[in-house]
Amino acid sequence: MTARSVAVVGGGAVGLTAAYDLACRDADVTLYERDDLGAGSTSRAAGIAYDAYAEDVDVALAERAIERFRSFSGERDFRFARTPYLWFATEGGAAAGAIREQVERMRHHDRDVELVDAEAIRRRFPVLRADDVVVAGLARTAGTVDPAGYVDLLAAKARDAGADVRTHTTASVALDPPRVNGAAYDAVVVAAGAWTGDVLADAGVSVPVEPYRVQAAVAGGPAIPILYDATREYYARPHAQGIIAGDGVTTPVDPDDYDGEADDAFRDRIVERLRERVVNANVPIERSWAGVCARTPDNDPLLGEVADGLYVGAGWNGHGLMRAPAAGERLAEDVLGERDGVGAFDPTRF
Ligand SMILES: Cc1cc2nc3c(=O)[nH]c(=O)nc-3n(C[C@H](O)[C@H](O)[C@H](O)COP(=O)(O)OP(=O)(O)OC[C@H]3O[C@@H](n4cnc5c(N)ncnc54)[C@H](O)[C@@H]3O)c2cc1C
């Protein structure tokens, strides 16, 4: 059988994984990244990964992603550091109700999660203040990764498998037949993160992907589990230099023109949140930054064929790194006709 020629647009976690998986299946792969590899959202991610999802389609992707993170762990400098994920509400009402319902549905999907109360949190994680916790879920299949390490590893694996990975090469996509910068391919995969809407618009394809800005910071602090406070909407994870934390304040932006520095109000919020939550917290902010994510109207990603020979993987709503190992693989399987796309994530659904 002749190898299929496939172009991948975007050298972030999703595009690099797709390039690797396509090349492993003997496709003739060219990846186009307009900047350095990982220069988009991936290098700015906090690196949290878990399989604690309630919907079956999300569970399938997340489970496979964690399985692959684990199998890649130890190759080159990449590590998946297994760490429990604790998410909690400090008030009754919608957030607390959602956690109870999520845990029940996750358990229905055989996720290793349980409901825990304040006393159990204090016993298990003495480093956390838990008096105000009304309800919490604890997921054990979770961990942290270094996004740059994932990029380096997948780029090396893609190249070893035969992919032509081109950096500082902007791709312009056209259709009939699928083309990049004038060269025809059997298929083109667009995994251009927050820029996906622009890249597809060039090809005359419209998708509802909204780019938005979010912020993160590295603070000093002790070893904590991965946290998400569903009432105050912030997260934190352990890190070699302490803690990485960020919050749910999002602002729609132009991904080519946004402030990549975090602002003082954000840093103050993070210090306050960590001081409230972490016992004896000494949490000076050591560095902070902003990055872009992208979401769709239903908050589910676009994953699959969007026009003849044109595939897309985008709109991860802040959860793209943790799903990249599975999303790239699914794109490769879909392009090569080994497996159908994920119905709920059909990019033509809007
Ligand atoms: C502060 C912050 C914290 C986050 N924390 C987490 C987390 O803990 N866990 C998690 O799962 N996710 C997290 N995310 C989200 C995660 O970063 C993204 O979902 C993920 O990196 C998306 O990967 P991607 O490959 O789709 O996109 P990107 O990494 O953005 O890659 C797309 C690439 O396409 C390139 N590109 C664009 N246009 C073109 C063109 N015309 N030609 C060629 N190349 C082009 C860009 O330069 C870019 O490198 C976080 C994001 C931010 C900003």
TrEMBL record:
GO CC annotations, alphabetized: cytoplasm
Claim: Transcription is one of the keywords in the record: no
Listed InterPro entries: FAD-dep_OxRdtase (IPR006076), FAD/NAD-bd_sf (IPR036188)
FAD dependent oxidoreductase domain: residues covered: 6-333
Record keywords: Oxidoreductase
GO terms, molecular function: oxidoreductase activity
Family matches, as SUPFAM superfamilies: FAD/NAD(P)-binding domain
Record flagged with keyword Mitochondrion: no
Pfam families per record: DAO
Listed name of the protein: Sarcosine oxidase
Organism, as annotated: Halarchaeum nitratireducens
